[in-house]
Amino acid sequence: MIYEGQAITVTLLDDGIAQLNFDLQGESVNKFNQTTLKELHEATDAIRASSDVKGVVVTSSKDVFIVGADITEFTDTFALPEEELMGWVLKANAVFSNFEDLPVPTVTAINGMALGGGFEMCLSSDYRVMSTKAKVGLPEVKLGLFPGFGGTVRLSRVVGADNAIEWICMGNENRADAALKVGAVDAVVEPEQLLEAAIDLVKRAGAGELDYLVKRQEKLEAVKLPPMEQMMAFNSAIGFVAGKAGPNYPAPVEAIKVMQKHAGKKRDQAIEIEAKGFVKMAKTSVAGNLIGLFLNDQALKKTAKAYEKKAKPVKQAAVLGAGIMGGGIAYQSAYKGTPIIMKDINQAGIDLGLNEAKKLLVKRVERKKMDAAKMGDTLNRIVPTLSYGDFKEVDVIVEAVVENVKVKHAVLAEAEKQIRDDAILTSNTSTISINTLSEALDRPEKFCGMHFFNPVHMMPLVEVIRGEKTSEETIATVVSYAKAMGKTPVVVNDCPGFLVNRVLFPYFGGFAGLLRDGADFQQVDKVMERFGWPMGPAYLMDVVGIDTGVHAEGVMADGFPDRMKRDFKSAVDVMFENNRLGQKNNLGFYKYETDKRGKPKKVVDESTYELIAPVCADRRDFETDEIIARMMIPMCLEVVRCLEDGIVQTAADADMGLIFGIGFPPFRGGALRYIDEMGVAEFVALADKYADLGPLYQATEGLRKMAAEGKTFF
């Protein structure tokens, strides 16, 4: 044994080949934390000191190679003063360069996922052999960063500037064939041949059959591209990537600028340039928020895992009510492997649901994400029916009929009589109280909400809503089923609108108030889209459906009359009265025409202004900051109330619900992180500035106390 630590061991194999093996104790995956970095430095020095070593193969004992740096350590590390952080990054880089400079050939055997720092480790070796089952990539841009352990330097010299820009700015995980094609790895073999192939390669290099020093030298020198071609490659990439990433995600463009700066430099100078750019990105609020979002996501997964231990298996599901929503639910369940019965009261509904599922599957086949055989298998897992014939075999039923209490009561009561006593009944209601719906049932403990978002196949969130009588086993089983469907479940307690719709309607309330006071809905849309929302509030209302919005607003007003009941007629009311329902009938705040791809295209309709003029003040320009404040304060305060009322258990649950459910701008991290970033006291002061607009703008006592005590949500 040449070296033995908690994360790394180095043993001498036959013919002087040292095996440096990653196996982080106490963890299911390998990652670069402080321990691993320290041990890599020590292990490299031990190899250098041994005269017996003629070559090194790098391996992993885990199913993955290395998933990257330990993100849980980022928050503390990135909080360091800029100079200290720069020192830490350069010290970490010295560990990789020290390994790269070993006086013997090195080969990394990539057995599984090698991402971020894990792939940067691979790049620091002379050769890379990859299993057909493995994936490699540099996904740091998804956290508002770019590679900081030499990744921009080494990759641009190994695969060329164009390929490096694509890999780093896209942040994708790349399969073995793609990695081999661009030269990111030197060989691809089947998993069982991996170690043997890596040892063979290092022996050939050691015997002089392969010139590893020439290969290594390429990474130590400038990028091999004439200056004029360099300038054209980098400048054109900056324009293209800036257009794709948008102004709120600076890391991809900054990565290109950094690569351009260090393209003409040797390794050590280039790494200093990379480190400086990395530190600049690490200090941005975008990186802080995206890292926080990642950690929140991990917390959600941990909670779901705990629920799964108490869950009953779901081998057969059912959906009541076909149509677009039912078809979407059936597709998602079947596609992810859980057979599902799709019941409706008439054939037309069945046909609509099946057509929805078929349409989604055909798209997957057209995009080569699925073959025809798998499409057939998926469709076979959807059983359409007009009767309850096979419902005794069902474990979980999702009711997805019209959003009407009487209809839902009747359907739920009827269904309960057709299923086993231990089967679970859920409702895909978006606004109606679960406690109210459970009044129709004999077994309310076996009932909860399972609120999907439209379109089901695209929206990651499922709200699992606990009623007063819902059992823990019911919640656990539905959480487990949602996960099996590929969704992110958030468990919330019952109230009108639950979490997502409860906080969305105060946002729409802010919009209604702005229009009443003379704001131009187009200006509001543009401001909120620049703020980071995928679409502004007028456009969103059109997409959701004005009639759906008016109905849900009524439910929310009944539930929270003190702040959600309006005392004025709004522009939305006028839209509804004039049967302008949005995209569903091609006329709402905007007109909708069909584009070349057959999708609705938004077009300005001047008649909208004439229509809403009687309920709006004379049109005037509002300052951007005022529009943002009047839109965001009501939403953020309602999220605070949901946390204070125990509708959600944690700030992480609340923020992830908004990110996954309504497209809250991810780079802002969520409503509660948005308050934290502004400062709780500063947010309360901003709310007080607009408090005369009504209760929607009035901070809670709990938030005032937090502000006084200097507390934060995260």
Automatic annotation (TrEMBL):
PROSITE patterns: 3HCDH (PS00067), ENOYL_COA_HYDRATASE (PS00166), SUBTILASE_ASP (PS00136)
Record EC number: 4.2.1.17
Pfam assignment, any one: 3HCDH
Residues annotated as domain 3-hydroxyacyl-CoA dehydrogenase C-terminal: 497-592
Catalytic activity: a (3S)-3-hydroxyacyl-CoA + NAD(+) = a 3-oxoacyl-CoA + NADH + H(+)
Domain 3-hydroxyacyl-CoA dehydrogenase NAD binding positions: 317-495
Keyword set includes Transcription: no
InterPro entries to which the protein is assigned, alphabetical: 3-OHacyl-CoA_DH_CS, 3-OHacyl-CoA_DH_NAD-bd, 3HC_DH_C, 6-PGluconate_DH-like_C_sf, ClpP/crotonase-like_dom_sf, Enoyl-CoA_hyd/isom_CS, Enoyl-CoA_hydra/iso, FA_oxidation_alpha_subunit
Coiled-coil boundaries: none
Pathway(s) where this gene product acts: Lipid metabolism; fatty acid beta-oxidation
CDD domains: crotonase-like
Group of enzyme by EC: lyase
Keyword terms, alphabetized: Fatty acid metabolism, Hydrolase, Isomerase, Lipid degradation, Lipid metabolism, Lyase, Multifunctional enzyme, NAD, Oxidoreductase
UniProt record similarity statement: In the central section; belongs to the 3-hydroxyacyl-CoA dehydrogenase family.
Official protein name in the record: enoyl-CoA hydratase
The organism's taxonomic lineage, starting at the top: Bacteria, Pseudomonadati, Pseudomonadota, Gammaproteobacteria, Oceanospirillales
